[in-house]
Structure formats: C-alpha cells, structure tokens
Amino acid sequence: MWWAFYVVVNGNSYGTGxxxxxxxxxxxxxxxxxxxxxxxxxxxxxxxxxxKRYVSLFLITIGLALVGGVLIRxxxxxxxxxxxxxxxxxxxxxxDSQFLTFKLAYKVLDLLFVVSLVITIKFVQQQITHERYTxxxxxxxxxxxxxxxxxxxxxHFLFNxxxxxxxxxxxxxxxxxxxxxxxxxxxNYMLYESNDTLIPLDKELANLTNYIHLERIRYGEELExxxxxxxxxxxxxxxxxxxxxxxxxxxxxxxxxxxxISWIHIKGKVRKDSFHFTVENSLGxxxxxxxxxxxxxxxxxxxxNVRKRLELIYGDGYVLSINPSDTxxxxxxxxxx
Length: 337
What we know:
rod-shaped, 2 domains
C-alpha cells in the first residue's frame, strides 16, 4: 500500500502520466524503508519504551533515519538515475549537485514519516489487544468471583437446615418433605442455573423465596418476616446470588444472634431503568439485656465479594449503601437490562 501510494502521488504530482518509472524507483528503495521501519518498530520500540527511555529512542531513530536517507540518496543518485532510468529526467528536476541538501532532507523526513505512521498503527493494535485482554481478564475474574460466591452461603445455614430436617423427620413433621424440596431447589440454582453474568430476576427471586422459606421454618414465631416485591419483573436481568447475600447477612446480624423477638423487612422494586432492593433487620438485645455491638459496614467476606462483583459489572453505575445504626439496613440500586 505504501509502495502504491508513492507511485500514484508522485506520478500525479509531476503530471507526466507515467507511473512505471516511479514504480521502479520506489521498488528499489523499498527494502531500505522496510528494514528501517521494522527495526525501529519491532526492536528499538519494545526495548526502549519498556524502560521509558524515550529520548534515547528518539535520538537513535533520528540517527538511523539520517543513515537511511544517505543510503537512499546514494542508490538514487549513483544507480537508479544513471542506469535504470536515465531517460526519466523528471525524476530529478532538482540539480544533482544538491546531493546533501534538499533531496537528502526529503529522504530523511520520508523515513521518519513512514516509521511514525507504522508506530501509530502499532500502538492502536496494542491498545485493541490490551482492551481485549483486559475484557477477557475481567470476564474470567467475574466467573471466579461467582464461583467463590457460590461457596459463600454460610455453612451454618446448610448445617442448621439439615439439623432441622433431621428433627422434623424424627417427629414426623409434614413439612419435612417441603424442606427437602426447597433445599434441593436452592442447591440446583446455585450449581447449575447461576453461571451467567446476568440472569432473569425471576430466577433470583425464586431462589431468594426458597431461602426465606427455610429460615422461617428454622426460626418460627421468633422472627417477624416481611417480604415485598413491586413492579414488573419480566425481562429484567441482574447478577446471580447478589440478593441472597444481603438477606443471609440480615439473618446473621439479627435472629441468629439475639434471642428476643426479631424482625427482617425485605423490599424490592423494579423501576423503569433500575432495580432497587432494601433489606433491614432489627438489632435486639440478648438474654442478659445487653445491646448488640453495631456491625461494621463491610463485615463479612460475602459482602466484600458482592461489592467487588458489582464494581466489575457496573463500574460506578450502582449504589450500595450499608448503614448500621439502631437497625442494620442495606440498600442496593443497580441498572437492569
């Protein structure tokens, strides 16, 4: 393309209508241009830019361009114009005695222009490659975070659920079969249905409902539970296993720690362009009447994991507020697709 570019431009500039002489001339000097350009781009540039020695790179490039310009001028002056194209006088309108003036400077600038163009293309290619690599890395990190989060469902939940199930079987409780079904649905969702970056909101809510149902069986009358959902959830997608982490945390700081009557309020609302989710739980007193210590905002590996995943998926496009005071309240707002 570079060869053809010079042939066409020079042929049209001199207005002779002949392209063959320019084609031969540019073909003769092309190896010098190629050698100079690729040496700078693939040898000097990686070696010096890696160490940030840009001044040295610039000076060496200028020096090589001067050497290349002299070689091209010698080839043109002593070989091409005298032996290959002696009749093509329009190739050399300037007096040949000007060996070290205009034509030499033109050849040097020509080489610098060529290498600058190729370096620009190279930088664009590297930027595209870097962006692809970064995107692949983020995707892989998201998958890793998701796999980690799948194992973040507190072991005490599974342990207590199995213990409750064992007790229900011994007492021949009719709800034992229902507990088995709910637990199996939760495990099936975690293992097989939550592998995508975004999943339908309905699936996430169904899994959340199963989890709440099992915890209700566990705490019985000790827990006041309120769960509301507003808006149209059809065609809404969110990251999997996000909501359950906040709800599980509410049980962790509420009824699982304090023995008096506790409550948990959960509310979700689908808006036009976003999904708003709130979880709030009481912080009652223990059997000795002592008030609980306020939980830290980032307590729990699960919540830190969720925050990292939200940052990877949405960047600054989400709002997560965790406010421990007289109650423990978590508010999340994310855009939905």
